[in-house]
Amino acid sequence: MNRYVIGKRAVLSVTAGMLSISTLLSAPQVLADSTSTQALEAQIKLLEEQLQSIRGELDRVKTDTVRNEQKIRENEQSVASVGAQKSAGESGKHMVFFRGGFAHSNHTRNGVSIQSDVAPVGAQDQAGKDAWYIGAGFDFNLTNDVWGFLPGTSVFAELMFEYKQFSNSVSGNALANNPTQLAGGALNPRKVTVSQFTLTAAPKIKFLEGNRFRPWIIPAGLALHVISPPSESITVLQPGVMFGVGADYNIWKAIYVGADARYQLAGGKIDGVNVNGFTVGGYLGIGF
Fold it and tell me: Residues 42, 47, 48, 53: is their CA dihedral positive or negative?
């Protein structure tokens, strides 16, 4: 709209200038016919004033044009900058991540296929305390300033699962014997896989909003543990609490790498099986 108005003013000014110049060119003929020197001087003075007025108008049009073009460029740059910031912010607002690393249990694992106090027959082996784990999770952004209380601090809702394997070659008891020793079979234990599946939901607090490097903590979260093989009473589910600490770094666009440590605390044993322990590892995240 500004460019249209400026162009219209420029056309009118140039037209006025051309008319004035035409008048100036035709002035000699008029002056030649005139017999009054005073009238000639007045006419020349009037033409000079008109030319000065046209020149001033053209200067104002030029100045307004430059000023408006500068404002348009500034507005375009501002819009582009806001769009880039919004795009960058949106690309890292939420995250899906994939984890893996080392796990450790506070106690050795036992259960119906590993150790039995009811039927103490067979190999009765136990798995070790160390394990490897893999998992994945999802961070959903809730606020970037703790709802106005802490600027630069974000709160995420994290949903995460992981699978731990302590061993896949533990000799089972009489219930894992082929044929079972309870029916008079010879010692021939099967190999048993000792594993654990964990599902957690927790608040995750991330600091340094707007930075590539962002440390975070999980003050406490709900955890549900599923053990395999089941306990001696065929129980597989144990609730608990999870605590966590870690940090991630934005390496390129919406790609993040990070490291974390988490501790799982359950409310006692689940029929002789204690699932308390920790994990330490890394993760790869994708923001969106």
Answer: positive
